[in-house]
Amino acid sequence: MNEENPKSILVIFGATGDLANRKLFPSIYRLYKNGKLSEDFAVVGVARRPHTNESFRENVEQSVKASRPDNEEINDGFFSHFYYQPFDVTDLASYQELKNLLERLDEKHHTEENRIFYLAMAPNFFGTIAENLKNEGLTDTKGWSRLVIEKPFGHDYPSAKQLNEQIRQAFDEEQIYRIDHYLGKEMVQNIEVIRFANAIFEPLWNNQYIDNIQITSSETLGVGERGRYYDKSGALRDMVQNHMLQMLALLAMEPPIKLNPDEIRSEKIKVLRALRTMTPDTVDDYFVRGQYGAGLNNGEQVEGYRDETAIDSESNTETFVAGKLLIDNFRWAGVPFYIRTGKRMAAKATEIVVQFKELPMNLYFNKGKDIQPNLLVIHIHPDEGVTLHLNAEKRGVGTTSTPVKLNYYSHNGDKINTPEAYEVLLYDCMLGDSTNFTHWDEVALSWKFVDVISQAWTAKKANFPNYESGSMGPKAANELLENDGFHWWSI
Ligand code: BG6
């Protein structure tokens, strides 16, 4: 295999769905355009709906064009690599037809019998598809076979375990690529580089110098068209179990002995194992839930969660979570990690703030008060970069200092050249690099942590709605920090 230009067939289950159209097709196009795919590739879309190759290619073209507001010319040759096969995931004949098609395409496109099966669809059939792919011989090739799975990977630990066991009948752990798209984001990947490639941070990266760490991922959008899924999931399962805990693990892990998937995973797993567990009775001391009511979104009046399409009018589902997590190990004992995430908040932003401890003695003041603590802010989205907050001299005023910011923005704000998370992850999967995918052990530990919270919340009805659309969440989320003498740094 050519390392730089992997040859493979990508089979997308759910090829007429939202994820394929919004993310996967544009990402495949960018890989192609940037010379990352050789000419030896094919994409096979499978889904229930009837389509011909031609009508499917038109869909792909529309989706790629919609992602390129610059109206750039797209080479027609690109679309000729796409094929469609109507598919019934429970009918074995569909698998045989797919098998024949893949064999023909292997020959036509010289793809060396390398196959990626990408499950971009409702999760109910993940297990069935994996088993049928194996039993019907689709993974039995001279090349490699990999399975890419979108979230949700189960809805609690027992269901995730069951799903995993089913998939593992057909694929080894090394062949399974569980997507957490946050791990494909440039600045999430940069957390390790900032920590481990700079002598100035790592010596301070512990409970002697850090007061607390805050991770915020806020969204302005509401639940939109996804009510049916979301009302059963909520923010805890949708964002905390995966994206938020993954960012926390990267921030808290020990330096791996090597930058390979096994070593990095084993350090992340140690963090998740060290998370202080709660009992249903203590959940309220550490976690706050919220649900948005009506309010203003970008100046427009919007309705509350319970009035959205497909949402129960008395829904107890949380659209906001804030939490205080403690990591009981030598490095982090006593340092709270605060997380918060929610829909219909004031801003769309993902940001990490590392707040350093105050100096043992203040010689300088800022506006009559103690100087501001040093902060390291990692901007994940929409800005991508780092800001270091320092204190510097205020000209001509003896003992007064003033806060200053050192900013670094990657790509100078040129978002067009920032690779999309899905583009990065698809390419990693083609190269067989599983570093930025979640291992089963991480998934299992995250579910076990989160399950205690959801059990406590299911058992007790919340007083919802408790935050206005367009705000930064319920008051209790602020009190969570205020009780510890901290506050959220605004984003
Ligand atoms: C997804 C969630 O995993 O992440 C969505 O299912 C959420 O509900 C999305 O909107 C947020 O991702 P991003 O990349 O926009 O921060």
Overall description:
By secondary structure, the protein is of the alpha/beta class. The protein folds into 2 domains: 8-150, NAD(P)-binding Rossmann-like Domain (Rossmann fold, 3-Layer(aba) Sandwich), CATH 3.40.50.720; 183-419 and 439-483, 2-Layer Sandwich (Dihydrodipicolinate Reductase, domain 2). The chain is 33% helix and 21% strand. The protein contains 12 helices and 19 strands. The strands form 4 sheets. The protein has an 8-stranded mixed β-sheet, sandwiched between helices. Strands 3-2-1-4-5-6 form a 6-stranded parallel β-sheet. A 3-stranded mixed β-sheet has the order 10-9-19, with no helix packed on it. It is globular, with a radius of gyration of 24 Å. The model has no long low-confidence stretch (mean pLDDT 94). The protein binds 6-O-phosphono-beta-D-glucopyranose (BG6). The site of 6-O-phosphono-beta-D-glucopyranose has 5 residues, from loops. Substrate binds at residues 181, 185, 219, 238, 343, 348. This is Glucose-6-phosphate 1-dehydrogenase.
